[in-house]
Amino acid sequence: MENEKVCTLALIHTPGIGSVTIRQLIGYCGGASEVFRSAYRKLIKIPGVGEKVARAILARDSLNMAEEEYRKCIDSGTALHFFTDPSFPSRLKPLYDAPVVLYSRGTFDFNAARTVGIVGTRQISEYGKATAEAIIKELQPYFPLVVSGLAYGVDITAHRACLLHHIPTIGVMASGLDVVYPSSHRRTAAEMMENGGLVTENALDTKPDFMRFPARNRIIAGLSDVIIVIESAKKGGSLITVEFAQNYHRDVFAVPGMIGSAQSEGCNALIRDHKASIFTSVADMAHAMGWNEMETINNTSERAQMQVSFDGFTQDEGQILALLKQNGTIQIDELSWQSGMHLNKLATLLLNLEFQGMVRSMPGKKYGLI
């Protein structure tokens, strides 16, 4: 197992290989270690792998670096979550561009029943600051995990408000875990370890280069059930996060702002263009998300006690019902990944099960048993 993890890290550090290609390689070869044992002739037949990439793999230059990195993570108390591991976030697993590995420190549950992404401008106004703090306070009864980016402005305001109200919060970083950026947020980052923590797809010692921030934003979107944009200019990272959220079928809410305010141009445009629902209150958002009606079953033994008869259903329908029984509520992308069914086929089966009174659909493209 340790060798498999080291080999996966080595693939990440092999030039010319991205997360999609790594999944292809591991899937075709049967494991990361098998990739390095494969013949050149076999590698070049794998989609996304050309002659240059195949030669880079077989050179095995990244293996020593990967082993050193793995040891450094173990020694520093950094947890590694590979996409093949049970600990990898279930919300990210179905995403085609999800990271191959996540590094984390802290105490939190990736698979919390409800996750909320808070994003916005670094140039936060007093209105934005007060709104962000009020939203976090109002979220408390729903017991969410709050996800943000540890940046100036809206991000750090949300993290600090979570600490004040004892809400678990994680900061998704565009650097390695040991390179807190901006450095002025180190104290807050340290405090978050007690009820939350830090997450990144970047190796230790990685500096926060410009291009790593959009990649960071896709993780924020992927980990969140719903994104709330507090304030945003006409252009900015928050709008990139919204694009990812829409691609991942996540709900997006935007806080409306004063006409003419530079900090609210982005939010007002999102609402105008129907790219986000207007945010009026946490209670209204919770109602739209179905949180008021949803019964979250966190305990596995409680799930096991649910009695559901699958008699009279087809094999595919029975598989869907079994997965819904096991998970409680689940997003359609995750259900597709767990069942191995194409989304079009799955949507048809779910609709039939709704007509039969077995399944209910909820906001955020989630489904649960009735």
TrEMBL record:
This is DNA-protecting protein DprA. It comes from Dyadobacter flavalbus. InterPro entries: DprA (IPR003488), DprA_WH (IPR041614), DrpA_SLOG (IPR057666), Hlx-hairpin-Hlx_DNA-bd_motif (IPR003583), RuvA_2-like (IPR010994), WH-like_DNA-bd_sf (IPR036388). GO terms for biological process: DNA repair; DNA-mediated transformation. GO terms for molecular function: DNA binding. It holds the Pfam family HHH_5. Belongs to the DprA/Smf family. Residues 9-28, 41-60 form the Helix-hairpin-helix DNA-binding motif class domain.
